[in-house]
Write a structure and sequence with these properties.
Number of helices: 16
Helix content: 25-40%
CATH architecture of the largest domain: 3-Layer(aba) Sandwich
CATH topology of the largest domain: L-fucose Isomerase, Chain A, domain 2
Number of domains: 2
Strand content: 15-25%
Number of strands: 18
Structural class: alpha/beta
Largest sheet: 6 strands, antiparallel, barrel
Length: 495
């Protein structure tokens, strides 16, 4: 069960310019609400019945009504041309994400007394929003009939969910980044710009809390749950009590430290001293919390945890964080990909991490020891990693990052995990993203992104793009995998 994210209740407020028939806005609002309830969850929306907003007094009445109804998102619906001052004041004073949509004309047989001119009114609304420095989501084509506007609202729900969640998020981190790990450098000023709180702790604080959980009476029940999840993949059963102790430590820390914030993500430490002092690696526990909607990133990757959280809230599903790790060997490409899938060799790569991907997103899994760490340490202190091939299917690779120059940037790329055996170790998959080679060079390298990328299981680029735009990422800094023929600014046209 996914948790750690808000439920959106969107208030629909219709507006009308006083020189247009109010009945247009009334009937069009009713049609919109009926269309939404016929296709989607009726609990997503609330129809403001108090009034059609024509004046500032109406605006105040509508605002009080939707607040009383518990709405945390708003749709200002232009049933006709709309009152540009009152409707934008409504957006200004509503504390939460808002969108604007407009009604299309219904029929050629009613273009005298029944023409609403909302197509024109949307221009005035957008102009006034800019005058007042008000952020609002406006769909790609914001004018439609009842069914089309219902679809627009439904597309806004995950965007609104992410914006609400970010406004109440605290990221909890433990320990400085490991030595030789400047790649996950995290200037925190941009977190505050986004409205996100951060609590930075020493891993010594975490170790103290872990030791205080020794012999916690809840440990046996957590062990049973782990055994049930792992099944035959429980290859290191002797380490489960310690992993359960650590899981309880993190959950209790969240309860004690989230303060006035409702939602939490964790940027955790996992090496180099973690294994020798705790006696295990935390990968499996990280995967379990992430599976509940509480992302736990590896290697104190603060913006990785933030990215995972956004992806989890948008998709309402499990996410993961992977290294953009290694190329696909030529013989694997020739044998298993070429001619079977429409990807060049440069479109493919392997996404990997030691074992933080939730079991729900692995085709098979085994809880083992961490091979890379075991090259330099006794194997018994590297137990606790979850290994398996990542499930095939559509994915979105993305990341929100304050890079080394302290600018906020993001990238989004749609692709898929191919049904190709990885023949390797860790939580790993063979990924394919169209034009990945160019994207890798002219976005990931050129824009100084770290090697960690968040993965959502499905194509969520449309919603993620709108989330990033809404929270203030400059549109020229929201990068994507550009198709062939669309050159990146740094791409050599003569190559």
């Amino acid at each position: 069960m996914m948790e750690n994210m808000p439920k959106i209740k969107l208030g629909i407020v219709a507006v009308s310019r006083d020189c247009f028939p109010e009945s247009l806005s009334v009937t069009r609002r009713e049609a919109l609400v009926n269309a939404y309830k016929a296709k989607y969850d009726a609990e997503d929306i609330y129809e403001c019945p108090i009034c059609i907003v024509e004046s500032e007094i109406h605006m105040v009445q509508a605002l009080e009504d939707i607040k009383k109804a518990g709405c945390n998102a708003l749709c200002v619906y232009l049933g006709n041309f709309g009152p540009e001052i009152s409707e934008t004041l409504l957006a200004k004073h509503f504390d939460g994400p808002k969108m604007f949509a407009a009604a299309a004309e219904e029929t050629q047989n009613n273009l005298v007394g029944g023409r609403g001119d909302a197509y024109c009114g949307m221009l005035n609304a957008s102009y006034n929003l800019k005058l007042r420095n008000i952020k609002a989501y406006i769909p790609e084509y914001p004018v439609g009939n009842a069914e089309e506007c219902a679809d627009m609202i439904h597309e806004f729900i995950p965007i609104a969910r992410a914006i609400v969640a970010l406004s109440d998020l605290k990221i909890i981190s433990f320990g400085p980044r490991p030595l030789n790990f400047l790649a996950c450098n995290a200037p925190i000023k941009q977190l505050y710009n986004l409205g996100v709180e951060i609590e930075e702790n020493s891993e010594l604080d975490l170790f103290e809390a872990f030791n205080k959980h020794a012999n916690d009476p809840r440990i046996p029940d957590v062990v049973k749950d782990m055994e049930k999840e792992l099944g035959e993949g429980n290859k290191k059963p002797e380490i489960l009590p310690k992993l359960a102790q650590y899981e309880l430590t993190l959950l209790d820390w969240i309860d004690a430290h989230k303060g006035y914030r409702k939602y939490v993500a964790i940027a955790g430490k996992c090496w180099p001293a973690f294994q020798t002092q705790f006696g295990f690696v935390p990968c499996y526990v990280n995967s379990r919390l992430t599976g509940r909607g509480i992302p736990v990133s590896c290697e104190v990757d603060i913006y990785g945890a933030l990215s995972e959280f956004i992806g989890s809230v948008v998709s309402e599903d499990v996410v993961t964080l992977l290294d953009i790790n290694n190329s696909v060997p030529n013989d694997m490409y020739e044998e298993s990909i070429k001619g079977k899938f429409d990807y060049t060799h440069e479109d493919t790569f392997m996404g990997f991490h030691c074992g933080n991907t939730n079991s729900k997103k692995l085709s098979f899994c085994s809880m083992k020891y961490q091979m890379i760490m075991a090259r330099a340490l006794p194997e018994e202190v590297t137990q606790g990693t979850l290994e398996g091939d990542i499930v095939p299917g559509d994915i979105t690779f993305f990341r929100l990052q304050s890079t080394a120059d302290a600018k906020i940037r993001a990238y989004i790329a749609h692709g898929e995990v191919l049904p190709v055996a990885t023949k390797s170790f860790g939580a790993i998959g063979v990924f394919a993203i169209p034009e990945m080679g160019r994207f890798y060079r002219h976005v990931l390298i050129e824009k100084n992104y770290p090697h960690h990328g968040a993965v959502a299981f499905g194509h969520y680029g449309k919603a993620l793009y709108e989330v990033f735009k809404y929270i203030g990422v400059p549109v020229d800094e929201i990068n994507f995998n550009q198709p062939k023929g669309m050159l990146y600014p740094t791409e050599n046209p003569f190559k």
